Amino acid sequence: xxxxxxxxxxxxxxxxxxxxxxxxxxxxxxxxxxxxxxxxxxxxxxxxxxxxxxxxxxxxxxxxxxxxxxxxxxxxxxxxxxxxxxxxxxxxxxxxxxxxxxxxxxxxxxxxxxxxxxxxxxxxxxxxxxxxxxxxxxxxxxxxxxxxxxxxxxxxxxxxxxxxxxxxxxxxxxxxxxxxxxxxxxxxxxxxxxxxxxxxxxxxxxxxxxxxxxxxxxxxxxxxxxxxxxxxxxxxxxxxxxxxxxxxxxxxxxxxxxxxxxxxxxxxxxxxxxxxxxxxxxxxxxxxxxxxxxxxxxxxxxxxxxxxxxxxxxxxxxxxxxxxxxxxxxxxxxxxxxxxxxxxxxxxxxxxxxxxxxxxxxxxxxxxxxxxxxxxxxxxxxxxxxxxxxxxxxxxxxxxxxxxxxxxxxxxxxxxxxxxxxxxxxxxxxxxxxxxxxxxxxxxxxxxxxxxxxxxxxxxxxxxxxxxxxxxxxxxxxxxxxxxxxxxxxxxxxxxxxxxxxxxxxxxxxxxxxxxxxxxxxxxxxxxxxxxxxxxxxxxxxxxxxxxxxxxxxxxxxxxxxxxxxxxxxxxxxxxxxxxxxxxxxxxxxxxxxxxxxxxxxxxxxxxxx
Length: 610
Hints:
The chain is mainly alpha-helical. It contains 26 helices and two strands. It has one domain. A two-stranded antiparallel ribbon has the order 1-2. The longest helix is centred in the middle third of the chain and has 33 residues. The termini are far apart.
């Protein structure tokens, strides 16, 4: 890969700036406020779930980050001290040779812990997963009423893929065996963790950088410690299988770019096709892969020392193969569903209605589910053309209102929507678990972790960890702006696609969690780069003081960088003093007469176990 031509530098810089901008916004949300699902008491005394925002302390977050930095520096120094002792080089060589042993050991640990959690909870499906699971089990009994007018698969025929998946698995695990399906989720979780680690190492090596291999274990530990995704093993909605298959497609795409072996095209295309059958929004991964393949083709055509027409053409053909695989797998799935059920799949609700709903207020939070898509579908007699027209009209009204009042309507709504789906440190993993029927006698510590005092401690821990992750990603983007390569941003580009998509689509933290975890490997690497930077800076200061190195004056680039940073800080400080900052970043529902903090910390009369 040629990193010297102008096109590469422009694309690399633009991607890093976009990612830095998005992550910085999420970072500000994280240090100034915290979101969580609480309970709103209505006028009649009844309760209603609602996402609240409470004020947070930037100082405490900064202190936690400094503590994490200190621990990291002490750890690195301890390793160096041990290296100075006799025989450490030999032991280090053993660690390098057995890096894969650590990888598979952590994978086994994931499987064991995930299986133990499923068996200790045995939680029944609820909400939408319950509808999907029930439809699959009804098929086993010859009941296909889910296709009747106004029933689940009549309105959402695109969910037939995940229903088919559960239907086929039921022949292995038996009818109504939801625990067996949750164990499949455990396997998918282990695959996701493994692929995240291998992807980061693979795409880093595409730029000729090998240091990522030494951070493989640290990255794996990072995704293990960030636990919200692991709670979703009991959530039967296709999130984990779809993500595992999608990451498989990204990984095999990277293997193709590294080796140019065509078998990886077939593997990636198959994974992508199956992923979209299970979960349609996996198309975001396809778009991200396509972006890198288009770039690769452009580089082969125009920026290689020798024009690589065949390689560039194959990269473009790769995109076609994935598109054909998606279309073919979807068609085969639909045909199989129609063959099993004897029903013809309809068009269902118009996808545009989810965009309109995503730009409206909802009981749970901005852009959340409020029933608009079903209402507009029914009101227009299930005529998709009429529904589309109605959606376009409603969307036009919303966009007109927001554009005419951007500071009062547009920006505050989008900011609250961003907080709703990105600033809950648990990504509603606990709320997706609480209150569900269980066939197990859960130990007290596990019950506390899900809905008692343990859940408060976990939420607080994840709140600070979220800040460290986001700041670690920012450090990664800044400190590797020159040494990093374009392809190492593959996972971050998928995250960026998910962020942009859910800015307008229906909101839910359960939809965004598959994208946030993609940032964890970058955060681990960013913290390592940060520690190395501090060590180099300290060493440079010592050398100057001792006279071993001459004191150098800052160059023109350094002066310009400092000037831009100073201007940015001043503008940011001015923004902090505005009312718009309070309505977009420092969100605090306690100021509206709601005792949200008491709900989050479970103090006073509040009990969040509802």
